[in-house]
């Protein structure tokens, strides 16, 4: 039971990956949920565990998309090496962005990440030979999951590709959960709670923040690479500011400081957004109202709401059990 409790969030993430094919008719939509859940996981590591509100997540997502697109189109690499390079590209760019951004805090840190987001957007727009400019990279292939030349899983259909993404999603979630449960994760929480005290205790705060940035960039870059293979396109919009905004909103909706909360937030954003878009072309206005409601009444996000409901049910059960015990005792003595 202790082992199950220890891995409960990883098991919940795996349960989501198993349930999506049963609940959704579209393999592409289910894949999109897991892809953005990965991106939100990377954002949560920065915001929820390190206290850094970054508007640069779209940079890493876009770099991952372009890296996967270029190596698949130009070098004809297999799926796993292409994704590894997408994660590496995201990590290297995160190292650069983080190196400069962590030198400031608060509003100035946010402004720096915004400035980098704009800079990389126009860089991608200008480098048309590499990124395709305004058109993006088109006809990105989707190779099968293979190891040592042996095909393990085909990716021809959307549900076959979903299976590959689901395996990678659960694996990355497990690895990130190991990170946040480790000494590094606990130290990041100490930095989030009181940076000055963590520094006074001898921790290298800048190095810790940079480590969080690099891990976050690698996970988000991986998500970008998976997204490019899912759609067959690496568009310019993947690297623009609005992608950063969407990833940040997913993280906040789910709740910060818990990895499974990011899965809830990404699922809510993608699925509700998809549903609202069928009702009204200007569905973002409706989503904005939902976000206002979340900000006003669910400040700990969907995960916080779920925990409140669970605690309330446990409280009622506990009260019922105590009342039953008191009644039984009274009857015994009467």
From TrEMBL:
Database matches in InterPro entries: ABC_transp_permease (IPR001851), LivM-like (IPR043428)
Main location, first listed in the record: membrane
Cellular component terms (Gene Ontology): plasma membrane
Pfam families from the UniProt entry: BPD_transp_2
Membrane topology: Multi-pass membrane protein
Source organism: Herbaspirillum seropedicae (strain SmR1)
Name the record gives this protein: ABC-type branched-chain amino acid transport system, permease component protein
Chain's gene name: livM
Intracellular or extracellular location(s): Cell membrane
Keywords, alphabetical: Cell membrane, Membrane, Transmembrane, Transmembrane helix
GO MF term list: branched-chain amino acid transmembrane transporter activity
Transmembrane segments: 78-100, 106-124, 159-176, 207-226, 246-272, 279-298
Keyword Transferase: no
